Every structure is written in C-alpha cells, then in structure tokens.
C-alpha cells in the first residue's frame, strides 16, 4: 500500500556558508555571479539573485574554515511547520526554536543524522526592490543586474554524508522528500541520491563522503536557465584568474548542464545552465543508475570530473584545495 505523501515542505529557501575570506567571497558572488548584497549584520552578509523572491537566499558568515552554516527549508503552511517540528522532535534530532533571522520569522533548527544544521520556517520577508532596481516586468522581483553574468535563482544544495542511506531516509521520513534519482553500489546501497519536495529533480542531493567524514558540504548551486551563460561565465572566471574545476558539461543524472568552481572562501559552487527536467508525475518512479549505466550517469558529455571532485568538501579535512583569491 502506498504511503500517504508528506506535503509539508515547499522548497529550499536559503543556505548559509562559512568563509574565512568573507569580502573575497562576497566579491565573487557579486562580480562573477551578478548577485547583490541585501543586508549586512555582524559577521554575516546576506545576498540574493535577481529572480529570488525572498529577501535573501545566500548568507556568507565569517568563520575560520569554510563549510555549511545551515540550510533552510520553507514549510507549506504554519500548520505544516508544526507537524514537521513534532515529527523531528519525536526522532530526537531537534535543537530548538530561534526567533528568526534577517529575511524570515521564527525557525525550528535541527540536525540531520550526519550533523548538518537545518532549519524550517513559515514566515518570510519578500524582497522589495528600491525604486532604482524596479523593473516593468512585474513577475520579476528586481531588474537584471548589469554586472557579472547574473544567476537567476538558488537551485539546490549537495551534502556529503558518512552514511548516505541513513541521511536519505531521514529526509524522506522526517520531511517528505522524494528520491528522484540515485546511484547504487553493487549491494544496492546508495552511493548518491537526488531528492526534492518540489518539481525540480533535486532540492537536496546527498553523496557518500569519500573521506569518511561527517557534516561536510559538497556544493551549493545557482541557476541560469541558458547553457550559453556557462560559456560566458567561464570566460569571466578564466580572465580573472579563477580555476574552473569542471565543465561546462552535462550530467546524465538530472540532465543538467553544469560548471563547478571553488569560490575564494573555499566552498564549491555549481552553476546550472538549464534545469535539466522537471517532475510533475505524483507517482514518479526513482531512476536508478548502476553497473554499466554509470558511465553516462555522471558525465553525459564533456570532460570527466577530476578525482578532487569526489574527495574535496568543506570543511577541508585531509586534502588541501587549490584556492582562488
């Protein structure tokens, strides 16, 4: 018998990353990715892409080492928030309530099995553009920036986990995420899984940590919508001395056009050239990649990913990355 779906989480709302070089990180997201600063407070800078409807989708916080501060989910209603909090508390994963942050109201914080900090909330602040940033395109929150190669919106986050299956099951059972695609080992355990609560192929991806560490970040991702922009931003990156880790290319999993680069603070950033595909089928059957199919799962076309792609995550534990500055 099919389980009743949990429809209490709407989407990924924002991410916080740590950076030991906050101003260099902010400059990267602004000058390369065309994002804007929405607010500064304390050791944190709040940023947004021009088609993000909320006040901010990225928080960069000063810290001795790079990594994930937290990821934030928006509930589908105040009642949905209460249901998810009750379920998480019953699982014993809760941290507790915070009054809120810049851009959103009260939020409940908890840990995933791997130790990633997550928060969920309902009340949000929608972005209100100042007069000089308004656009006559009424369904866009602000006008398109005329600097960098502007990304349009936050897309997803990819987490590294010591125990992939345990973390995948947590997001399914506690929050209602659905596994859209997965890469399986010979014993049918998850090597990696792509999960969503929206029509996207993934709001969150979970990959096994090749170094056996816990609580690390693999990458955050912003979306362009046009593959040509990956070529445009590649030119911008190379001419300004950044090293592109991989791409442009296309994944078999998710069908997405990609480019990967490590920002100056040390965190990996993926740029999506298109959305891959979207899912509208309520009875979607998980796509499983295994054995001979794996050759095309990671790279559909383009150069192979370097070994560092599978081993490097933040905080850095055993390997030292090539840092851009």
UniProtKB/TrEMBL annotation:
<keyword id="KW-0408">Iron</keyword>
<feature type="domain" description="VOC">
    <location>
        <begin position="153"/>
        <end position="274"/>
    </location>
</feature>
<keyword id="KW-0223">Dioxygenase</keyword>
<dbReference type="InterPro" id="IPR000486">
    <property type="entry name" value="Xdiol_ring_cleave_dOase_1/2"/>
</dbReference>
<keyword id="KW-0058">Aromatic hydrocarbons catabolism</keyword>
<dbReference type="InterPro" id="IPR017624">
    <property type="entry name" value="Catechol_2-3_dOase"/>
</dbReference>
<dbReference type="InterPro" id="IPR050383">
    <property type="entry name" value="GlyoxalaseI/FosfomycinResist"/>
</dbReference>
<dbReference type="InterPro" id="IPR029068">
    <property type="entry name" value="Glyas_Bleomycin-R_OHBP_Dase"/>
</dbReference>
<keyword id="KW-0560">Oxidoreductase</keyword>
<dbReference type="Pfam" id="PF00903">
    <property type="entry name" value="Glyoxalase"/>
</dbReference>
<protein>
    <recommendedName>
        <fullName>Metapyrocatechase</fullName>
        <ecNumber>1.13.11.2</ecNumber>
    </recommendedName>
</protein>
<feature type="domain" description="VOC">
    <location>
        <begin position="11"/>
        <end position="123"/>
    </location>
</feature>
<keyword id="KW-0677">Repeat</keyword>
<dbReference type="InterPro" id="IPR004360">
    <property type="entry name" value="Glyas_Fos-R_dOase_dom"/>
</dbReference>
<keyword id="KW-0479">Metal-binding</keyword>
<dbReference type="InterPro" id="IPR037523">
    <property type="entry name" value="VOC_core"/>
</dbReference>
<comment type="similarity">
    <text>Belongs to the extradiol ring-cleavage dioxygenase family.</text>
</comment>
């Amino acid at each position: 018998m099919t389980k009743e779906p949990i429809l209490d989480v709407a989407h990924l709302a924002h991410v916080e990353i740590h950076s030991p070089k906050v101003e260099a990180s902010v400059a990267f997201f602004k000058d390369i990715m065309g994002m804007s600063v929405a607010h500064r407070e304390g050791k944190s800078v709040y940023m947004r892409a021009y088609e993000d409807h909320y006040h901010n989708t990225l928080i960069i916080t000063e810290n001795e080492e790079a990594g994930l501060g937290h990821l934030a989910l928006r509930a589908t209603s105040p009642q949905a928030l209460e249901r998810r909090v009750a379920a998480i508390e019953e699982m014993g994963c809760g941290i507790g309530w915070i009054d809120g942050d810049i851009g959103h109201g009260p939020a409940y914080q908890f840990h995933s099995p791997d130790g990633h900090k997550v928060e969920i909330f309902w009340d949000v602040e929608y972005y209100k553009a100042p007069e000089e940033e308004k656009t006559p395109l009424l369904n866009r929150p602000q006008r398109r920036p005329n600097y960098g190669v502007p990304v349009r919106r936050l897309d997803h986050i990819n987490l590294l986990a010591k125990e992939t299956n345990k973390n995948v099951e947590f997001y399914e059972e506690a929050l209602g995420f659905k596994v859209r695609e997965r890469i399986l080992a010979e014993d049918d355990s998850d090597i990696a899984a792509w999960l969503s609560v929206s029509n996207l192929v993934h709001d969150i991806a979970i990959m096994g940590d090749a170094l056996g560490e816990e609580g690390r970040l693999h990458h955050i991702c912003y979306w362009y919508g046009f593959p040509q922009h990956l070529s445009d931003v590649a030119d911008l990156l190379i001419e300004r001395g950044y090293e592109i880790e991989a791409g442009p290319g296309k994944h078999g999993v998710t069908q997405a056009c990609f480019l990967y680069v490590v920002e100056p603070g040390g965190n990996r950033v993926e740029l999506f050239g298109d959305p891959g595909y979207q899912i509208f089928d309520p009875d979607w059957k998980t796509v499983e990649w295994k054995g001979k199919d794996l050759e095309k799962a990671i790279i559909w076309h383009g150069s192979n990913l370097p070994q560092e792609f599978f081993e490097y995550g933040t905080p850095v534990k055993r390997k030292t990355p090539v840092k851009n500055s």
